[in-house]
Structures are given as C-alpha cells and as structure tokens.
Amino acid sequence: MFLDWNHIDTVLLDMDGTILDRHFDDHFWLEHLPKQWAARHRVPLPQAKEQLYALFRSQERTLNWTDLDYWSERLGMDVPQLKLEIEHLIAVHPGVVEFLLFCRRHGKQLWLVTNAHSKTLDIKLKKTRVGPYFDGVVSAHQVGVPKEDPGFWDRLQRFVSYAPERTLLGEDTEDNLETARLYGIGYLLHVCRYSSTVCPVPSSRFVSIDYFTRLLPAEGCTAVSIGQMQGELADVS
After folding, report:
1. Considering only CA atoms, which of 11, 212, 233 is closest in space to residue 95?
2. Sign of dihedral through CA atoms 144, 147, 153, 156?
3. 8 plus 125 within the same structural domain
C-alpha cells in the first residue's frame, strides 16, 4: 500500500498526542491537578486520585471531558491557571514541524482539528507557536460534538470544505479514527508514540506511525510505502 500525495488534498491533524506530546496532559490530569485538589481539601493524595479519576471517567466521550470551564466550576479551582503552572512540559513531537512545512510547501489544505477547549488551545498555541502553519483550527466545542461522535466529520464540513476520500487524518485515538473511517475519510494514520514517556504500541486496526517524518517522501518522490513504515516502526518498538 502506498501513501500517494498526488491523491491527498487535505490534511487534518489532531493536537494532543498527535502533534503535541501528551506527557503534559497526562501529568496534569493524573498528577498535578489531583495534588492541588488534595491539598485544598486536605485529603490524602491516593484518595483524591481515586475520586477525581472516577469523576473524569464519567465525562469521557462528551465535550465536558475537555471543557476547562466545566472542570473549573465542578472542582472549584482555576484549571487554566493550574495548567500554566506546568506549561514548561508542553512540547511539539519531533518531526512535526518538518511535516507541516512539507504540507505547506506542497499546497495541502492543513487544519488542526481537536477536541481541546479554546482556553487549552490558547495556552498551547502560544507556547508552541505552531498555529501559523495551519490554514485554521477547529475545536469540537465549535462543532458541537466530540470527534468520538459519528456525526462529527459531517458537521466539520461547515468549517472545512474537504473531500473525505482525498483527506488524510492523523490521530492518536483509535475511536476517532473509527468514526472518520465510517464517514469515508480515505487516509487514516494512528500516531502511536503519543507521549515521550511511553513506548509506542502500534494499532491493530489502523496503520501506525511513531513520528510524522515517516510520511515524508524521498526527494523527487510522491509516494511512501506504508508497509515500509510499519516495518521500521516494529524495529523501533
């Protein structure tokens, strides 16, 4: 199988775990926020984690999952401000900027499509400065449903005019890739090195890459072998 760039007009990229290192998010929600909440309520950290993790899970696959205003009100804490306390952990994955430049250089329509809340976007785009590489940014909070919802990709057409069969989607979440597959998006890539702190685990359902540099064709070529990428990824794993 080949990824033929002559057949791709639009590139849609997720943010957290896909172009940005998810270590920041995992550390914030699993460690930093519970620690601050435990101190405020004077409860042991393990108890705080148990309560908060259950609360977080209750909002999975909903817009509340990434809504910082929702969590600020629910927890009685300034969540955006707490994120700023560890913003030094926000980082772009290796090879992402090179890939974005490649897409721009070859005239691809390039959009950041994310479940992230607008306040999260403000913090991360200011820190990473990757926003100008994109034609635009669309949040699920604008669309009205998260990417896990089968209706997301059709509703996205109100913000981005794209032909599904000529579109490439890069995601670290298999559920989102599955809803995109059902909608008919032609090129689906699973980013398995979502965090710098974990070993990559290739998907059993989708073609996986560790870094976006795997997608860059050799000079003068317009196609890259997906099978070759998978073989190289297996060596790295």
Report:
1. 212
2. positive
3. yes
Contact 45/35 with Cβ under 8 angstroms? yes
Q: Are residues 17 and 123 in the same domain?
A: yes
Distance of CA 27 to the CA centre of its chain: 16
Question: Do residue 17 and residue 127 come from a single domain?
Answer: yes
pLDDT value, residue 218: 66
Tell me, rounded to whole angstroms, the distance of Cα 156 from its chain centroid.
16
The structure tokens listed for 26 are 């995992």
Which helix H or strand E contains 34, and what residues bound it? Answer: helix 33-41
CA angle 163, 174, 14 (to 5 degrees): 55
Of 52, 71, 88, the residue that ends a domain is: 88
Q: Which helix (H) or strand (E) holds 138?
A: strand 136-139
pLDDT at 228: 45
β-pairing, 2-4 vs 223-225, is antiparallel
In this structure, the answer to whether residues 129 and 219 fall within a common structural domain is: yes
For residue 83, give its domain range.
24-88
Q: Tell me: pLDDT of 129 over 70.
A: yes
Q: Do 140 and 29 belong together in one domain?
A: no
- Domain match, 126 and 214 both: yes
Considering only residues 94 and 237, tell me which one the structure prediction assigns the higher pLDDT: 94
Prediction pTM value = 0.90
Query: What is the rounded CA–CA span in Å between residue 64 and residue 78?
Result: 16
Residue among 113, 91, 116, 124 nearest 23 (CA): 91
